[in-house]
Specification:
The protein has helices at about 35-45, 60-65, 70-85, 125-130, 135-145, 160-170, 175-195, 215-225, 235-245; strands at about 1-10, 10-20, 20-30, 50-55, 70, 90-95, 100-105, 110-115, 205, 225-230. The chain is α/β, with parallel strands linked by helices.
């Protein structure tokens, strides 16, 4: 039985096909300004016995081609528990929100907190800050690891922080120090969210921002424990959506 999991996020769309609880393949593309067209492109030529959607665009998917939907919280819980059965805490930093999820034994959601009121501390925030410094997100993460010095960023509002970064560059502040300060600020917000649900080992870091080695290093230092990161952290939600068909 071919089960599809579709995660329509603000920045990317992920699709996986599962046979039982094994992933056959997965693919991630940009959401762009037309997520419906992007979904159709991903689904073209592919057939599923059941297609489950999650993410911001799950209701759009259900209105057009998905058989059912599941919330992002449940999808990430199922996906992370499948990959790491010992997981008790999940941090998901995506394009425009951050989620902290506490799992009970067996992978059931015990509690969660979500920052989705603004882009502060998300992938979009990193994208805007990197552009303000004339860097790619990967370059910004790399140079942030080159220094222990940091410049405190006073605002996490994306608009104000962008102006602040531009001003720091104009005053000759070294870019690595600015990058370090930005990553430390994101780390502060993530740890604060995690503490609100309780931090229990093991902790899984998922979502697109989990690919950032600087944030991983800073979070591990702050938490004092290693983080578990999926091989492809952007597929976790889609995997969980597909797995929900088995539960």
């Amino acid at each position: 039985m071919a089960i599809g999991g579709l995660d329509i996020g603000s920045r990317t769309i992920a699709l996986v096909e599962m046979d039982g609880d094994e992933v056959r393949w997965g693919e991630v593309i940009a959401t762009t300004f037309d997520p419906l067209a992007q979904c159709r492109q991903l689904l073209e030529g592919r057939e599923f016995d059941l297609l489950v959607a999650t993410g911001y665009g799950r209701h759009l998917a259900q209105a057009n081609f998905a058989d059912r939907t599941i919330t992002e919280i449940k999808a990430f819980a199922l996906g992370c528990h499948r990959l790491f059965p010992q997981c008790r805490t999940i941090l998901d930093i995506g394009g425009q929100d951050t989620k902290a999820i506490s799992l009970a034994p067996g992978g059931k959601v015990a509690d969660f907190q979500m920052n989705d009121r603004c882009a502060a501390g998300t992938g979009k925030f990193l994208e805007v800050m990197a552009a303000a410094m004339g860097l790619t997100i990967d370059e910004m993460g790399r140079i942030a690891l080159e220094t222990e010095a940091e410049v405190k960023i006073s605002s996490m509002c994306t608009v104000f922080a962008e102006s602040e970064v531009t001003g720091l560059i104009a005053r000759g502040t070294p870019r690595p120090e600015i990058a370090r300060g930005l990553h430390e600020a994101i780390c502060d917000r993530a740890v604060s969210l995690l503490k609100r649900v309780g931090i229990e080992r093991e902790v899984v870091f998922a979502g697109g921002v989990a690919r950032n080695p600087c944030l991983k290093a800073l979070l591990e230092r702050r938490l004092g424990i290693p983080l578990l990161i999926p091989e492809n952290p952007q597929l976790v939600g889609a995997m969980g959506a597909a797995l929900s068909a088995l539960h």
